[in-house]
Amino acid sequence: MFESALIEHKFDKEAYEREEPALRTGLLEAQLELVEKQSFAAVIVITGMDGAGKGDVIHRLLEWLDPRHVQVDAYGDPDDTESSRPRMWRYWRDLPPKGRISIVFGSWYTDPLKSRLRGDNGRSRFERELAAINRFEEMLTSEGILLLKFLLVVSPEEQKRRLGAFERRTGVKSRALEEWADVKSRKRIRPIVEDLVRRTSTDHAPWIVLPSDDPEYRDLTFGRTILEALRQRLEQPTVLATAPFPATIPNIDRRTVLDTLDLSRKLPSNAYKKALEEAQARLLALSQGKRFQDRALVAAFEGHDAAGKGGAIRRVAFALDPRRYRVHPIAAPTDEEKARPYLWRFWRHVPRRGHMALFDRSWYGRVLVERVEGFASEAEWLRAYGEINDFEEELTRGGIVVAKFWLAITKEEQLRRFEAREEIAYKHYKITPEDWRNREKWDRYQLAIGDMIDRTSTPEAPWTLVEAEDKRWARVKVLETICERLEQAL
Q: Which residue numbers delimit the Polyphosphate kinase-2-related domain (predicted)?
């Protein structure tokens, strides 16, 4: 696969000095246009063989660009904050906003490749991890990010010469760096790396194999490739594809899984207090137990307006040590959040081990309110089902227990609660004109809810449907379900 890249490619220094000023000017102009338009972000992944000059091309690019609008995200072994969260958390955390360029050195490829080279991962697990990376990169590009991936390669003779010169200059024997081991291991490493490149070079994020024996050729080719990609995107913005037909199967009788719930379920007040106290004590013991310190909990609360999400969250929070949980109320995205991929604002709130995050509304807004109200295109909300499933799978793989609740009430009970909120002074803040507008689209929301539950209830993160006509019943069911999910995981 790398043979053509290892053919001698040279560019004499005089020619380089003639072309470099124009390339530098073009890159700076494209970057400043990107900053002004803020139409997309660019992520440049740089990896390759030891001695190929990865650090050199990064320094050269920073020399050519305005560094105020560039971030370098270099990843080594995860620190305590990073290792206490899922593997992909730190890469999501650092995604750049629109108008900015990120240079990624030591990327999401490093851990799977290292594990494979050490023999920790078998082939099937390696392939699963690469498939997950492909889905991650497809999501980035679907969200409008310009993703460029460079693999720097160098001939065995040149690599040996450079590593030897490094050792003589520094007195430090070259060790296996981020992605590749030393020259002696080249025959063993090469087929694994070629397998990685083949499986992750896609139409939306192809690998660019960059010959690096000659520094002048390497740097000019690197710069030209980035300039051409920036100019093409600036001049011809990518348009999201429309969804394939049919988007959904027509629901002729308009029945959904919510119609199977017995909303008459109630818990008498005399039994409620005892059941609530027992469930809260059970949850407190689980959250403070030694085994939970290696896990975390993410609980997402969704439901009809006025279904009692806030009351359920308060009863869960009452059972917990306030130092070990956070409640995240999710509203319309801020400008900072709109400038990044949709799931970024939820990844940033992923709890570390031993902690819990309670979401009042969640990442499901894209397939509910954004779908029904037209804030997301059909292609965007259809794509979101798979992205959400991947997100929740990453959480569970990282040791996080995911509990998802849909609190259901009838249209008649919702009306009663809306009217009560308007009559009681201290509940006025709970009712808004938007609540009444959403009520007019009740049937459309019911269909969206049914699709959501069908497409995102997985073995790792199943939905729990909560009969919420009786608030007492709903609160106890939520608490007991969280306890069951934790006990099952622990």
A: 11-233, 269-488
Domain ranges of the chain: 3-235, 257-489
How confident is the model at residue 249, as a pLDDT?
61
Q: Looking at 220-224, 226-230, 384-388, 429-433, which range is the least confident one? A: 429-433
Q: For 3-9, what is the mean pLDDT?
A: 58
Assess whether the region 3-235 and the region 257-489 belong to the same CATH fold: yes
Rounded to an integer, the average pLDDT of 16-21 is 90
Cis ω on the peptide bond leading into residue 250 (within 30° of 0)? no
CA distances from 393 to 115, 276, 396, 400 (A): 20, 31, 5, 9
* Cα separations in angstroms, 276 against 117, 198, 271, 440: 52, 55, 9, 35
CATH 3.40.50.300 fits 257-489, yes or no: yes
| Homologous superfamily, domain 3-235 | P-loop containing nucleotide triphosphate hydrolases (3.40.50.300)
Cβ neighbours around 252 below 10 Å, total = 6
Q: Give the span between the Cα atoms of 282 and 287, in whole angstroms.
A: 9
Vertex 236: Cα angle to 24 and 40 (nearest 5): 70
Question: Which has the higher per-residue pLDDT, 342 or 163?
Answer: 342
Give dist(CA 122, CA 116) in Å, integer.
7
